[in-house]
From TrEMBL:
Keywords: Carbohydrate metabolism, Isomerase, NAD. The gene is galE. It catalyses: UDP-alpha-D-glucose = UDP-alpha-D-galactose. It comes from Flavobacterium hydrocarbonoxydans. Signal peptide: none annotated. GO terms for biological process: galactose metabolic process. This is UDP-glucose 4-epimerase. The keyword Mitochondrion does not apply. GO terms for molecular function: UDP-glucose 4-epimerase activity. Belongs to the NAD(P)-dependent epimerase/dehydratase family. Its cofactor is NAD(+).
Amino acid sequence: MKVLVTGGLGFIGSHTVVELQNEGFEVVIIDNLSNSSEDVLKGITAITGKTPIFEKLDLREKSAVQNFFKKHNDVTGVIHFAASKAVGESVEQPLLYYENNIASLVYLLQELQQKPEASFIFSSSCTVYGQAEKMPITEDAPVQAAMSPYGNTKQIGEEIIIDTAKVTNISAILLRYFNPIGAHSSTEIGELPLGVPQNLVPFITQTGMGLRQELSVFGNDYPTPDGTAVRDYIHVVDLAKAHVIALQRLFNKKNLQKVETFNLGTGTGSSVLEVINSFEKVSDKKLPYKIMPRREGDITEAYANTDKANNVLGWKAELSLDEAMASAWKWEQKVRS
Ligand code: WQD
């Protein structure tokens, strides 16, 4: 089975390519290298001994997408990661996000709808729930008005897939990630944020390496046990494995509807201070931080109800916050060595 992974040189994409290859799939990667490096191919090969096919192209170019599917007409499964994902940047440059995240999805689906059947896994996000009323968050929690154009592109993307699956031979699974962190145990691949990291864990590990002076903790006046915001931090390898299981579900026609949705989290919420404590424990270093005002657009808490993923999809996160933090720290030290 040849599987297309778009954004396959990115953080979650590259870890998913490794797990697909481990399961015997032939992988072709599309990536435009706007937020990744071709060196990641070496990392993947170092882990699995197999080099995926790599096609450098921009999914915003419709003709390039059409030519790709002419060349690789044996692709029947797609895992679609390629998208812009910086929440703050999406507020400043909404059209860049709508063009990149929506147009590329439309062009992919236009090619897939021409096949007798196609399986499509979509990289979505818990951000579609906004600040959910009830914790832990289930898949039928209402989708709320997006807090950013980035979040809106995930909501719109889900709707486009649902509408398309109704009238084509495309079956799809929407995977709503919570907060992906960590790196492969081999330290051959990991998170490579460009510039100043927006996300908590890479900022922590860069601070641990002395690249950043101190961590700003965005708010300690939230209605949470220690006042700092709570999220569900999931190891990227656990997340990657879920994608393979979801794709196999569609290939084996185990899906119960044309489009299914699953929350991918650990089911446990951790506060910013708990993540800092975890880092200090696994690194044996004191992390310098300062309490700052809340960050615009942040929610108080989000963590997943994992019943559906565990009992229907047949997947469960296995790695702990400490194991994820230890892998992130090991990766940071390797990258900076
Ligand atoms: C986590 C917590 C911050 C940085 C976003 C997107 C989501 C997904 C993951 C793409 C929050 C706090 C952070 C820092 C801090 N992105 N924080 N100091 O905002 O939960 O989710 O990234 O797929 O869609 O919404 O993740 O890591 O930015 O923040 O105190 O320097 O850490 O306030 O409470 P977030 P995050």
